[in-house]
Design brief:
Two copies of one chain form a homodimer. By secondary structure, chain A is of the alpha/beta class. Chain A has two domains: about 10-130 and about 330-430, Alpha-Beta Barrel (nicotinate phosphoribosyltransferase); about 140-310, Alpha-Beta Barrel (TIM Barrel), CATH 3.20.20. Helix content of chain A is about 40%, strand content about 15%. In chain A, the strands form four sheets. Chain A has a seven-stranded antiparallel beta sheet with strand order 13-12-1-5-3-16-17. Chain A has a six-stranded parallel beta sheet with strand order 7-6-11-10-9-8. In chain A, helix 6 (about 120-140) crosses helix 7 (about 160-170) and helix 7 (about 160-170) crosses helix 15 (about 390-400). The radius of gyration of chain A is 26 Å and the shape is elongated. The two termini of chain A are about 45 Å apart. The mean pLDDT of chain A is about 95.
Chain lengths: ~425, ~425
């Protein structure tokens, strides 16, 4: 499949006009996220999939037939037929932490090509970045306790569920329930039982016994199908039977109710029965603030499972991510309408020892150390690719280096943005 | 590609246990949405894609190799290798309006198959239903004015963007900017220019003139790149030039600022210049409440473009959609933990002349008129398929028939749910 129709119609109309007028000079578009009070920083992710997309961009005969039906003329169609991926992409490596207004990538290419890929480029960066950022916030809240991604079923689409599981891993998740994501990206897969398993058996303890018999090395019992504390007591019985057979129960899972109180009562029951090493897993409607609350009150929970809130980034399912023309034919361009200033020129983000709080947004050709954007792609050939493990490592290092004020999970009325270099300020004022 | 890995690991673990124990009797799972204060009703959509998914369900040799690596034994793998799509699906047709707790579909199949498809079935119904419902709310708010889907770039994934555009059309959108969705589903495609088009020209009026020359029959000028009212005055100049050439300017588009005030001032400028038929299109951060406000104050806007809020259903990007075991081996089953009652038995929703407010949720074998769920699939063969046009028509009729109290766009502290039939009540109490 050619990918040229994965675009908005206005891109094609503009391009038809550009082609007619010979407006095919080099254009630079800059992709960045506008300030978002709920997110003082972002884990950028999705650049690698953008490069994949660009590599396969073009128009098949079938695509052109469809466009002919929309009224595009033969001259335009013949230009589209020969539109090969061309130009250059500079980008931050996947997993890099960025602030609002800092470019995640910049495309410099003949104006028609750079314009046609706008829709897909924005789309392909957004979901991975939004979910990786959410995962990083959740990991911060969990304070070192493992976080597992349970979100596949509630993600916005099947392939999106796989992409979201990857982004959750990059942002700080430890493992996933998503089997296809585990296969495709080598993420550790986890999962034991749902309520339906309990219900399919005559009663809860029969279900626990059956599972412990079938998976004695890896039994985590879901205890809240009927009555949670009764479930914990049933789990204790089965833990005893497992121990007699030479195994130890790995854990129990709480999936509803007051998790702070239930985890304490469960811990007591388990400890008093002689099972201090049986772990307590908690899931069910959790997000970073719920986890921070549980950690804050000292709930004895060993690991958190997060589903919906992670997979769709429920509080911020989309950000104001834009792809703005900043130069055309060697001329820097900007946009001035109400509250939506666009800064002119191809850019670079300079980050030095001081860290993200001291970032400087400047022009790409400034002679300064610490530039984050690197050349990644030229005329269909990649000069970089970013694998999941490296991206995850990069995100983890950024979280470790994050200054305390930026660890706050609450809203920022004025989210941080980079300081402008004096050369960029001069150009913006010109 | 086989689809058997598009699942959560716990499904496979449970199934391995079921297979070992010969627990392969018929199970019925019921998929429904729990009460959601922000959504008193839903436009169900996605059933057709579930049936597609079931048709292709199975395990390839590569899949089985991966599962062997996760520790599944040869007996389980050999059962998975021969797992063909089997069972029966009853569902409401795509585009049907449903309340919380009303099943959208029910799967009755051998327990292992019915369990393995859980993750994908939930996933495939959710996004289309959430977006079709959002589109219907936006269409209600617009009160008959056309609504156009501009959300592709902000959707959570590329294929999800195509699915979201389809769902937006089904729920009440008139057209889409998404070219691939237009091609695949025959949705009308619309779009003219972005700010970058204006910026790529030396000045705004040159850009307007160029576009009008290239698309004289379909010119909608984006007026807010620099100064909105100055942009409208430039559009008036070009409208005059177009008229001299025998064409009429179709419209202007406002994409930022105070749309109520700007639309009034733009209307006055256009009318006084002799262009009362030039339409005003508005876009930029709109959702149903923003549109309702604009309509409420009589803003002279002819058509609305909605992007992010529609494509990700920003206020409710995911709902509490569940797939619950309600019967196994002829035995109705239920679940009782805190606040999450599951009603037992295969069900039917009965809707009679009184409409959705009088819906009755009963057992499937009750002899009552107006059952909404129909048999759609059996053992890999479909008995129904639901195309986009029919789904859209069904949704439109439901919106027309919607009782006034349910047209409210605000929160419902107690969203409506169907009354239970006496037979279902008796069974739930048993």
């Amino acid at each position: 499949m050619a990918r040229g129709l994965y675009t908005d119609l206005y891109e094609l109309r503009m391009v038809a006009s550009y082609l007619k007028r010979g407006m095919t000079g080099p254009a630079t578009f800059s992709l960045y996220i506008r300030p978002t009070p709920e997110r003082p920083w972002f884990i950028a992710h999705g650049v690698d999939s953008v490069l994949d997309f660009l590599d396969g961009f073009g128009y098949s005969d079938e695509d052109l037939t469809f466009l002919r039906g929309l009224g595009f003329d033969e001259a335009t169609l013949s230009e589209l037929a020969k539109m090969d991926p061309r130009g250059e992409v500079w980008a931050v490596p996947d997993g890099t932490m960025v602030l609002a207004n800092e470019p995640i990538l910049e495309v410099t290419a003949p104006l028609p090509f750079a314009q046609l890929v706008e829709t897909a480029v924005i789309n392909l960066v957004q979901l991975p970045t939004v979910v990786a950022t959410k995962a990083a916030r959740i990991a911060l809240a969990a304070g070192g306790r493992p976080v597992v991604d349970f979100g596949f079923r509630r993600a916005q689409g099947l392939e999106t569920g796989v992409a979201a599981s990857l982004a959750a891993f990059v942002g700080g998740g430890l493992a996933t329930s998503n089997v296809e994501a585990a296969r495709r990206y080598g993420i550790p897969a986890v999962g034991t039982m749902a309520h339906s398993y309990i219900q399919a058996h005559p009663d809860e303890i029969s279900a626990f016994r059956a599972y412990a018999e079938d998976f004695p090395e890896n039994t985590i019992l879901l205890v809240d199908t009927y009555d949670t504390l009764e479930g914990v007591r049933n789990a204790v019985v089965v833990a005893g039977e497992l121990r007699e057979a030479g195994h130890e129960l790995r854990g129990i899972r709480l999936d509803s109710g007051d998790l702070a109180s239930l985890s304490r009562q469960s811990r007591t029951i388990l400890d008093e029965a002689g099972f201090p090493d049986v772990q307590i897993f908690a899931s069910g409607g959790l997000d970073e603030s719920g986890i921070a609350d549980l950690v804050g009150v000292g709930a004895p929970i060993d690991s958190f499972g997060v589903g919906t809130d992670l997979a769709v980034s429920r509080d911020v399912p989309a950000v104001d991510i834009v792809y703005k023309l900043v130069a055309y034919n060697g001329r820097p361009v900007s946009k001035l309408s109400t509250g939506k200033l666009t800064l002119p020129g191809a850019k670079q983000v300079f980050r030095v020892a001081g860290g993200i709080e001291d970032d400087v947004l400047g022009l790409r050709d400034e002679d300064r150390p610490g530039g984050l954007l690197v050349p990644t792609w030229r005329d269909g050939a990649r000069s970089e690719s970013f694998d999941a493990a490296a991206a995850r490592q990069r995100a983890a290092e950024a979280l470790t280096a994050l200054p305390d004020p930026l660890k706050k999970l609450e809203r920022f009325e004025s989210p941080p943005t980079p300081r402008l270099s004096s050369r960029l300020e001069d150009l913006a004022r010109a």
